[in-house]
Amino acid sequence: MEYLIVLLLIFIGILFLMQVVFFEMTRSKMEKANNMNWFLSLDKPFSYNRVGYMVFLCLICYLISSPVELFTLNWFVYFVLFLAMGIVADAVVQYAIMVYSKKRCRRQIEDAHLLQNELQHFSPGAEFENDYTVTLPSYNESEILRRYINPEDHLAVMSVDAGKFASQFKDDTEAMFIIEPYTDTQRVQGQFVDGSSVKVTTLTPTGKMPFKDEKIDTVMCQECNYDKSEILRVLKKGGYFVVNQHGTDNLKEFVRLYMPFQMKGKWDAESCVQTLESIGMRVVDKFEDYGTIRFHSIQAIYQYFTKVSSDFANINRYQMFYLQALKEIKDHSYFEMTTHRFLVVAQKMF
């Protein structure tokens, strides 16, 4: 019996040291990333819920190492004893790690609670609406589009901004079509006066563009997705496709917290060029812009997301991000995010 107790204590000691090493590696990573949500998770009460995991692990280990004949009475007796020791050891280690983590990260846990309390009492204010600075863009998509349209052209603009971008060009061409896949087309159409050459439409029920073959001189894709085969179908020979989109590095500080598995690929100007060249189009120009947005308050971040993506303005849902941002604002007086966009102009040659 004494031998079993000594064996159990040695096992607990080894397991505890391994868990401490793993914990310290994780703590260092979370501290560098200012992941205050992780530190909040350390302050939860102890709850052991790894019985199923330990049963599976002990069974595998016992099947491999047991010298007793399989599935005999002795085999079952020793397995139950082995399993009990494993569960007891794991529970003791989990509790010890919880105590260790709370003492080791006491300051960070207190800071995280203070930040969380500040977020819970957050109230948006218009005075913080412009409390951020943005680097100057390296290109202007409106100016570039005007290089590729003529007064007699038929222009199609795909967007998700309820016609805001397209409204700049309502008098520049003979006819303009605004394709809004998610917004009420009648409401957008109401922005344009009677007799205007602008027609607001949407995609067909099968996701196609609402035009006959080779009827459009220039298609502009403004910060939305497109079907390359549809672009090729509706463009006239010699017509232009202008695509302005966000790249994978846009707002990466937010996106990578919640969608890490979608960030393995890369979408940038070169990737877009390859896509268009693969369907036989000739790329005539491309631009790429990397910049930053520097926020000086949580209110400014909230106001910014309210404009560009209202879902991201949900502080409760994205607490991890807002806690991280608030911590960096406290430490450095600002929180910085990356912006990434690109523009490619391609011509249909056949």
From TrEMBL:
Keyword Methyltransferase: yes or no?
A: yes
Its GO biological process annotations read: methylation
Supply the alphabetized keyword list: Membrane, Methyltransferase, Transferase, Transmembrane, Transmembrane helix
So which domain of life are we looking at? Bacteria
Regions that span the bilayer: 6-26, 47-65, 77-100
Q: Which InterPro entries match?
A: 23S_rRNA_MeTrnsfrase_RlmA, SAM-dependent_MTases_sf
Q: Which GO terms describe its molecular function?
A: methyltransferase activity
Indicate what this protein is called per its UniProt record.
Class I SAM-dependent methyltransferase
